[in-house]
Design goal:
Largest sheet: 5 strands, antiparallel
Number of domains: 1
Strand content: 15-25%
CATH superfamily: Ribosomal protein L5
Distance between the termini: 31 Å
Length: 179
Amino acid sequence: MSFLNYFYIKTLKFDLINKFYYTNLKKLPDLKQIVLNFSCKTVELKTIVTHLLALKLITYQKGTMSVSKRSNLLLKIRKGNPTGCKVTLRKTLLMNFLCKSLNEILPKIKNFDKIKVHQKVEKNAFSFSIKDTLTFPELAEHYYLFNNLSNLNLSFVTTTKTKKEMLFLLKSLQLPLKF
């Protein structure tokens, strides 16, 4: 059991009950999944394979390719062509990745001044992107292969009912948020 999972069970549940007055313990909000996503601007197989390999090295889980559902003439995308790749983390892999990102990755980013929260945040999902993907030590070891990666988009999906609950949950898990 990771320390964040232990913290959620022992401390954060009681804080949520006291702050938001829950009567049913089974309806307490929780971090449901984290989605990591690379969007590729080119349709070359080499770039998509390097993005998939980067996701596998970062998360220890196999990624899937995202395919366009319809063609777009402005973006020069045909129907059925790959547009990116993603990985969905749940349960223990979610907590392991969150611990790793909070302790190792976010402090290494240069000029990092917390994650800005916009007014358009949904009530149960929060997204941001990491521009410098080479802060991951797995990718930095193989710089020659991963030097042209695009931005990594992270989406946190929770089971909260309001935006206030979601921000309290993410802030309590020590995610550096800036309002």
